[in-house]
Amino acid sequence: MFWHNFKYTVKTLLGDKMLIFWTFAFPVILGAFFYMAFSDIEDSEKLHVIDIAVVENTGFRESEMWKESLEALSDEASGEQVFCTKYVSEEEAKRLLSEKEIAGYFMLADGEPQVTVASDGINETVLKYVVEEIYQTEEIVRNTAERRIQQGEMPTAEFYEQLSKEVMNLVDSENGGIRDISGANLSYTIIEFYTLIAMTCLYGGILGMVAVNQNLANMSSKGKRVSVSPVGKSRMILSSVLAGYVIQMVGVALLFAFTIFVLHVDYGNHLPLIVLLALCGGLAGLSVGIAIAVLVKSGDNVKTGIVISVTMAGCFLSGMMGITMKYLVDKNIPLLNLLNPANMITDGLYALYYYDTFDRYWQNAASLLVFAFSMILFSVLGLRRQKYDSI
Amino acid sequence: MTVFRAFLKVLNQCRIPIILYTVLLVGFGGFQMQTNESSMGFTASRPEISIINRDENAGITRGLLSYMAENCEIREMKEEELDDALFYRDVSYILYIPENYGKDFLEGRETELEVKSTGDYHSSYAEMLLSRYLKTARAYVKYAEDGEELAAAVSGILEKQVSVEVTSKLDTGNLEKAAFYYNFLNYSLLAGCVYVICLVLSSFREEKIRRRTAVSSMDYRKMNRLLLLSNGLFAFALWLLYVILSFVLVGKVMFTAQGLLYVANSFVFMVCSLAIAFLIGNLVGNKNALNGIVNVVALGSSFLCGAFVPAEWLPDSVLKAAHILPSYWYIQTNEFLKTMEDVSFTSVRPILVNIGVILGFTLIFIVAADIISKKREKFSGR
Description:
The structure holds 2 protein chains of 2 kinds. Chain A has helices at residues 2-15, 17-38, 41-44, 58-62, 64-73, 90-98, 122-150, 157-172, 190-213, 221-228, 233-262, 271-295, 300-317, 323-332, 334-338, 341-354, 359-383; strands at residues 50-55, 83-88, 104-109, 112-117, 178-180. By secondary structure, chain A is an alpha/beta fold. Chain A has 2 domains: 2-41 and 190-383, no CATH class; 48-170, D-Maltodextrin-Binding Protein, domain 2 (3-Layer(aba) Sandwich), CATH 3.40.190. Chain A has a 4-stranded mixed sheet. The longest helix of chain A has 30 residues, at 233-262. The two termini of chain A are 25 Å apart. By secondary structure, chain B is mainly alpha-helical. Chain B folds into 2 domains: 2-36 and 170-379, no CATH class; 48-158, abc type-2 transporter like fold. Helix content of chain B is 67%, strand content 6%. Strand 4 of chain A pairs parallel with strand 5 (163-166) of chain B, so a sheet runs across the interface.
């Protein structure tokens, strides 16, 4: 009887097109959208070579310092190119700026450096900063020269040349004395895919709900027939729920396959642990569906609505519509996310991806199991000894 | 009136999704609104960083700290919270100053600062600031007697600023807010229109209802006209609501010529959404499938055309593909308005082209909807 019911539950669930759309197709479609929208976003946030113009007036032509420094910064071969520089007249520079072809232009007006930009912004800030750096380097040379002369050195041409070379070397040197210790896994868009997995796991709750509803006398005529049949309730419900779980896991596996093989999402090196977390997450989603099926006494549509809203709210709090939300909740209302199954899944995957230690991962996996079993416990308490004299 | 009353009845059924789309719009639109006040002068970008100082706060260390505080937003938080903060871009750069750093630096010993960085432009800029301070300090370390003197010499140099002139007179910050709001409107308006109108059309097309209206005294054509009118009225009301909300949320920049162009652009898009909704309503009969279709259509065109993620950040291939969607042209106009300096015939021309394309799409959708509904009528044996 167990396998008989299992087989037919699988058939009924797979036959429901809406169910299959929401649990199988929708996550895949959403994943494709995420991929298309987010695949370039982190690269766009890097500092790119900035287009600028330099007004080539007599003042600029005579200043070796400015000429050399800007040339060095615009050198494509150096590997540390900051600017792509056009040397133009002042009118041309104004035209380029108004047509937004450059971020700003630099001009030496009576020996004083001046920067003109169209608006605020990071590229404009960098332009201002770099010009200031050259300006300040010039000042350092002058300043050190004074000190040395006070100390008794002779201000010959050779002395100046050597000094400016010394300072320039210092300024152009590599970032000495700074060591970057940030980890390699810093891609935050990956969180979006984690929330997608969480969503798929929780949407599986609809499957659990539909499977249980089939066995409830107050939900369908099939439920009435099942209730009067001489088969133990626990066996029927268990096999129905198992069928729901299996289908749900197929959906999750489909999503994994799609994200890994088609979208090339990098889940890190812990695939078995990720699968384990998805299994726990699926169980948690299923348990929510069962609990709602059993504890909420109303029609199919209302129950589906509740499962969907619980899922979407959970995913929203765990960062699906912008990862800042997850961070804000984690930081300010941690309790909310400790109880949120979507966040347990997202956070577990995040911990696996970002941290070297596994404490946070196991904590999340354990919370998922605790959550799932308490939901199931509530459902069992609600289901047992349910009897109808007439219905 | 009967038709309109029935329309309102169906509308009442879908108030929850409509409220949801509106809340999303206000929530996400408003989320972006909390940025700084606009000013006419140049405001340098300030990267958000955190500093963990294990050295004593004196000499060169103090100089470094105050220089970074001058040019960056310093976030104070517990050390164990920093890794999360870095991942979620709450800070883009973390600087760890080791013990005895100032002393070792002064005595010319090898010193090393540890940093963590997100690798985005804010962190690159923070690193530029840091390395400039270090290089300047290194140039003077030979001449300084003690840490305080060194710090004073370095800050004397770094105080030298270059004057910056800003040419644009635009209120860029607020125009960006408006663009963000109107880009998001793409989702809310499209989803709202498609959801409601499809539900209405499929309700009126239900077998029993259709038969009942067929035998009633109501002229079939008149009913269709009334239906079209009430749907149009609904779309207009929804658009009006969103426009009024934009005036509340975005503020006075909406009263400029650019602001009015945002409104006009969204009106054209509203008409187009109406046509899309009619087309889908004619294609899809199944009420249950509606939710899925709304999500795929509205989310899809919003993601692909840059309603959620700015279009400039999307891969080129996606943007190319997006040309076949009306949302793309709508959003391009919004993006264009963000930096439009003056309103004249030449400057408005690209906008007119975009609007023309949207109207072209609208026409195609209406014709397609017409053909489909005619075919359907024939098959249903009227």
